[in-house]
Every structure is written in structure tokens, then in C-alpha cells.
Amino acid sequence: MSESKPISSLFDLSGKVAIVTGAGSGLGAVFAGALADAGAAVVASDLNLEGAEATVARLEASGARALAIAANMAREEDVIALVERTVAELGRVDILVNNAGIGAVAPPEDMSLEDWQRVIDVNLTGVFLGAREAAKAMIAAGNGGRIINIASILGAGASIPVPAAPYAASKAAVINLTRDLAVHWAPYGILVNAIGPAYFGTAMTQGLIEIPEMRAAIEGRTPLGRLGQPEELRGPIVFLASEASSYITGHTLFVDGGWTSM
Fold it and tell me: Which among 87, 204, 198 is positioned nearest to 134, based on CA atoms?
């Protein structure tokens, strides 16, 4: 029997190139930092180029190789250009983190079609477009790859305590899209998984968690009794991007303090 590799080597991403969408702030910036710390060169993509550039500046200051690219994930031409430029400038795409997402909050009976469509376009169509284009590059290169879609606990249940039907619907669809793509791309060595975060303290959720009764409702519904800390997603993203997860595909890893166990 051959000697096993050191366990730390299973998490080493040296020589890999990762694209992280929505990397200009929030969890996207956390994902980008974690992958860079594990050794990957990182393309930080965001609709807000200044935000992506700020993330890149932080990564480069820590010694990582990084590139900022503006992209609207709901626009097919932007997504195609994102992957093409990554391959042109960094030579390959090994990892895609489909993180870019938006929400719309209102009772379902008051939700406008415009808001519904806007969320679906980014959270679902954008995830499909990103995965499709990254997979094309991975298939052409013949080295396999990792696609990690960012879902949500709201993809596994109702949007509580805040009504957000299009967000919940889009994230549920992302979970099953992850399964479907995993099966179709398994022959190419492309592993497709998802992370389903609970409520984390980020700019996107700040307004919500500053309302005492809302925060109390979230913490009371969570078995661990607290919000997630963004840094608690660093391990899961590196795990799913690395050789440590080489026999896992089509899976959604809920990082939720026990929320989906209830």
C-alpha cells in the first residue's frame, strides 16, 4: 500500500485558479480570501468593480496572485467574457464559486414581477451561466475542476422570519441545479457542490439583524443559538474546492448552526 499524503496536502490549492463571483464584499470576499490563503490564484468578480479591486488589493497584500473583473452575472456576455479573460490572463480555471446573489423582501402577495425576475436572473440564471462557462473551460482543458454554488438554508424551507419568496425559490432551484450538473459533468471529473449558509453577519443582512426581534427570532430558531460568523465559511469553501472532497459531488453542505435539522 502506498504511503498516504500528509493530510494538509489535501487542502493545498497551490497552482489552481479560482473565480469567485460577488467577491467585492460580504461572503464573496471571505471565500476569495480563504482560497487565496490555501494557495490559489483568485479572480475576484463583482458588479461593483471598486469592491472587487479592494478585495484584490487585500489578497495581493498577503502575497496572493489576484485579478479583479467586473461582471453582471445576469448578462450572458459578461459571464462569457469573465471566463475567457480568466483563461487568457491566468491560463486556466480550476474552481468557480458561484456566490453573486441578491434578494427582495416583501409579502408574496405584494412581490412585484420585476423584483421576482431580478432575483431569479441573478441567483439562478447567473449561477447556471457561470457554471456552464466554467465547465466549458474545464472540459476543454481536460483536468476536471470544482464548481461550488452558494445556496442557502432558505432553499430548504420557507423564508422566515423575513418573507423573501423569490430568494427562497431561487436557492431551492440552485440546490437541484447543483445535483443535475454534478451528474452530467461527473464523467469530466468536474465536481459540483453547494454551500447552504444560514444567517451570517454581513452587509447584506445588517439591516435585518439590527432589528432586535428579528435577531432574536433567528437566534431562537438556530440550535447553536447564534448567527454564523463569516470566517466559519473559510473551512467549508476550501474543503469543497480541494482534493479533500474528491469523492463528493451533487451535495449541499449546510453551514447553519443546526437550522436545517429542525
Answer: 87
User: How far is the C-alpha of 46 from the C-alpha of 158, rounded, in Å?
Assistant: 28
Written as nine digits, the cell of 105 is 423582501
Nearest CA among 248, 150, 146, 237 for reference residue 196: 150
Residue with cell 460580504: 26
Which is catalytic among the residues 167, 188, 199, 247?
167
Residue type at position 206 = Q
CA distances from 42 to 28, 33, 139 (A): 11, 8, 20
Say how many C-beta atoms besides its own lie within 10 A of residue 262's C-beta.
Answer: 9
Annotation marks residue 247 as catalytic: no
pLDDT in tens, the chain (262 residues): 346 789 999 999 999 999 999 999 999 999 999 999 999 999 999 999 999 999 999 999 999 999 999 999 999 999 999 999 999 999 999 999 999 999 999 999 999 999 999 999 999 999 999 999 999 999 999 999 999 999 999 999 999 999 999 999 999 999 999 999 999 999 999 999 999 999 998 877 888 889 999 999 999 999 999 999 999 999 999 999 999 999 999 999 999 999 999 9
CB atoms within 10 A of CB 72: 17
